């Protein structure tokens, strides 16, 4: 049973990374796109965030189940993995979800300013500022480093 739970945990982790990777790719592509209308199309091809959250839940359920049917739950690496995952999740929510709000707001303001020809320089500056915020780099670094820590903990079980 343990092997099946680990297999499902890893399977849902891969699906999660695949779905989540589409969001990251759209965020990174947005940084270099000067056209606000085109930039909004990047996000029409990514899975809805609720599906990524379902995959996260499935990944967690099977991982926790695998830890609890063995003696792993008594070891520190399991709990540290959970803490690292919660930290990653908090950073992703704060900076990743916050970035989507910044992006959509700035792009829509610039599109509207171009249509009405009002306050165009301020709208362009807001859009350029949104493209250059550090949010994308923060979530990318935290995600990659956090994943590396969790993989190290799961593979080597140091304590």
Description:
It is elongated, with a radius of gyration of 19 Å. Helix 1 runs antiparallel to helix 3 (49-68), helix 4 (76-116) runs antiparallel to helix 5 and helix 4 (76-116) runs antiparallel to helix 6. With 159 residues, it is mostly helical. 82% of the residues lie in helices and 0% in strands. The chain has one domain.
How can the largest sheet be summarized? none
Series of H and E elements: HHHHHH
SSE-based structural type: mainly alpha
Poorly predicted runs of 5 or more residues: none
Tell me the strand percentage band: under 5%
Residues in helix, %: over 70%
Q: Whole-number radius of gyration?
A: 19 Å
Distance between the ends? 24 Å
**Tally the helices: what do you get?**
6
The total domain count is 1
Shape: elongated
Q: Calculate the mean pLDDT score and round it.
A: 92
Task: Give the beta-strand count.
Answer: 0
Quick tags:
single chain; elongated; mainly alpha; 159 residues
Topology:
Layout: H1 2-30, H2 36-41, H3 49-68, H4 76-116, H5 120-131, H6 135-156
Helix pairs in contact: 1-3, 4-5, 4-6
Provide a quick synopsis of the model.
82% of the residues lie in helices and 0% in strands. It has 159 residues and is an all-alpha fold. Helix 1 packs antiparallel against helix 3 and helix 4 packs antiparallel against helix 6.
């Amino acid at each position: 049973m343990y092997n099946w739970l680990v297999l499902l945990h890893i399977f849902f982790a891969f699906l999660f990374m695949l779905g989540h990777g589409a969001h990251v790719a759209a965020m990174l592509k947005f940084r270099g796109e000067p056209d606000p209308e085109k930039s909004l199309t990047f996000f029409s091809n990514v899975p809805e965030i609720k599906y990524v959250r379902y995959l996260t839940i499935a990944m967690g359920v099977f991982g926790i189940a695998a830890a609890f049917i063995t003696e792993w739950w008594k070891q520190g690496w399991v709990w540290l993995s959970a803490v690292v995952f919660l930290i990653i999740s908090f950073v992703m929510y704060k900076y990743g979800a916050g970035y989507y709000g910044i992006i959509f707001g700035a792009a829509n303001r610039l599109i509207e300013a171009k249509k009405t020809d009002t306050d165009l320089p301020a709208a362009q500056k807001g859009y350029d500022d949104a493209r250059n915020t550090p949010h994308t780099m923060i979530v990318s670094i935290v995600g990659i480093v956090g994943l590396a820590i969790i993989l190290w903990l799961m593979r080597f079980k140091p304590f």
